[in-house]
Structure formats: C-alpha cells, structure tokens
Amino acid sequence: MDINIQLTEHSKIDSVDFNNLSFGRTFSDHMFVCDFADGEWKNPSIQPYGPISLNPSAKIFHYGQSIFEGMKAYKDSEGNTLLFRPLDNYKRLNKSAERLVIPQIPEKLFMNGLKKLLEVDNKWIPTNEGSSLYIRPFMFATGEGFHASPADSYKLIICTAPSGDYFSGKVKVLIEEKYARAANGGVGFAKAGGNYAAQFYPTKLAADRGYQQVIWTDDNTHQYIEEAGAMNIFIRINDTLITSPTSDRILDGITRKSILQIAEDENIPVEIRKITVSEVVEAAKNGDLKEMFGAGTAAVISPISGFGYKDEDYNLPEIKNGYASNLKKRITDIQTNKAEDKHNWRVKI
Ligand SMILES: Cc1ncc(COP(=O)(O)O)c(C=O)c1O
Fold first, then answer.
1. Mind listing the pLDDT tens digit for each residue in 192-251?
2. Which of 6, 19, 176, 297 has the most CB atoms less than 10 A away?
3. How many whole angstroms from 109 Cα to the centroid of ligand 1?
4. Cβ–ligand 1 contact at 227 (below 6 Å)
5. How far is the centre of ligand 1, averaged over its atoms, from the C-alpha of 207 (Å)?
6. Cβ neighbours of residue 251 under 8 Å, at least 6 residues apart?
C-alpha cells in the first residue's frame, strides 16, 4: 500500500536541545497514521505531528480499547539507523491487539510505515551517547457508540520522541501487599493502556511514602514478586540472577529476553522461577541479596537501591561492576553497533 506523505512546513528541530533531552517529552515532526474501517486497514500516511480529531462517543474514551508498544531507534558511529528486535514489538502489538479485540495489523504495513517515518524524521534520531529515538506505536478504537462492545473502526499511529538516557539514579521501591497490576485471565501480558492507568493509584500511594516505584506481587497471595513498575524484574541472590516466568500477568519483555540470552552467553547462572517475597527479605537480612533491577526498553536497566516491605526498609549493598551496569552496557553496545550482534537482533533501516 502506498504511503501518502505530507511534510511539515514548520520543522521544530532547530528549537530542540539534543544535549538536554528528557524522556518522551519532545516529539519529532511527523507521525505515521493508518485507519481501519469497513473491515480493512487503509489510508496509510505520514503527516505532521499534531492533534487528531475524534468524536466524544469514540470507544477509546469509554472502554479503553487501546494498546501500545515502546521501541527505540539508534544511530551508530557511521550514521546508520538501527532498530533492536523490531519484529518482537510488532508481534507483541498484535498479541495485545488480539486480547483487546483490535484488528491485527499486517507486518508489511507496520514495518513499511515505521521505516518511512524513520527516513522522513531521520535527523531526529539523536547521536549522543545514551540517547535514542523512542518510538511509540499505538492502536485504539475510533468507532463510535455507548454500547460496551468492540468498535468498528480503529487507528494505528506511530509517533517518535528523541530521548536522553532514562537513568534517574537508583530507585527505592515498595513491595506491594494490597494492590495488583494484573490478574489471572486478565490483560497483564498485553500492553493495554488501562494496565498503566490502574498502576497510577498504588504508585502514588507508594510515592507518598517515599518510594519511587512499586514491586508488583501476584494478585492472589501477594507472596510472589512479579514486576517492577512498568518493567520486568531481576533479582541477584549471591551470583544467581533470578526473574519470574512470564504469564497471564507478566509482560513478555524484550529487554528481559535479551538479558536472559546475554546472561547465558556469559555463563551467568540464571533461574527463571517464581520468586517469593520472603526469600528476598531473608536474602536482604543475611546479605545474600546483591542486586535488584528493573528491565525495559525505556531505561534498559533501572537499578534498585532498596525496598520497603511491611513497614521495614531494606538496603542493598553498593556493588562495583555489578550485573546491572554490565548488562546495560552489553545491551546498549549491541543496540548501537559497538559490539558483535551474534543473535541478529539489530535491524538496519
Ligand atoms: C508492564 C511492563 N513490563 C515489562 C516491560 C518491559 O518490556 P520491554 O523490555 O519489551 O520494553 C514493559 C515495557 O514495555 C512493561 O510495560
């Protein structure tokens, strides 16, 4: 399908300070837009980034039929544009779509739209160390009606945001004892917008108590550690790196998968198994707990300095050359073409 291209007459790029980018707050000049109506995807276009118009009865507003992805584009030292495992994001978008009864987007349409957008806004891909172009594809119900049922029309939009290094220091987290981000049979494995809205309140309560993030536990017993904010969680006890298995409730993170592969390549002992809160508390008390970190596209790896549980605070030791910093470097070196890509994760545009 041909992509209709309408370029902006007022590029904002000269007003952007690429040395001082925060995360996801500055938006590139263009966006890719495609509509689903009458049973098919149509009208793919690149247009200036800007407001869109929807009727108040569009189902996105009432029933939250909306999903998204998060991925990044990088520039290597030779000026090539690189994506990291983009087909994994594409597949996960469709997996989320299926769960929310949003139509599947064909691979060619998605990848061609994304590639064209990156060509058009190529100058927006930052070259500074640690910076990248964050890419946000999302699909949502535009079809109208106050009836609680799937819409008959949808939009796919891909926007991009040049972003600096997400690292905001080590975070103190609260292990959740009451709220849950996901439940068995629910939508936790999908990147459904509503999952994140539901996290805001418990995260706010945790913030009021001085914790920057929530460690989600299982909805049933709150005895098992599942995710860290909007990231997968890794826990290092002595030399073993442990992460929870993915499930109905846990997102199958691409960073998580990549860390597991790199750990295997480097002979780091790894366990994919359920992690109990009590073993982590025990390990913190006896000194076996060495590191905890979140893993996700935005921050890559976000180290945790300590956690709160049942009105007690536990601090993690300061570790030089820990797994968190080494793994972050290993992944970002592959992403930016500074290291060999033996699993063919990079895709050159
Ligand atoms: C709930 C949740 N867990 C984990 C992740 C990490 O996934 P990825 O590494 O694919 O970004 C994300 C972010 O996408 C997320 O929203």
1. 999 999 999 999 999 999 999 999 999 999 999 999 999 999 999 999 999 999 999 999
2. 176
3. 24
4. yes
5. 21
6. 188, 189, 190, 191, 227, 232
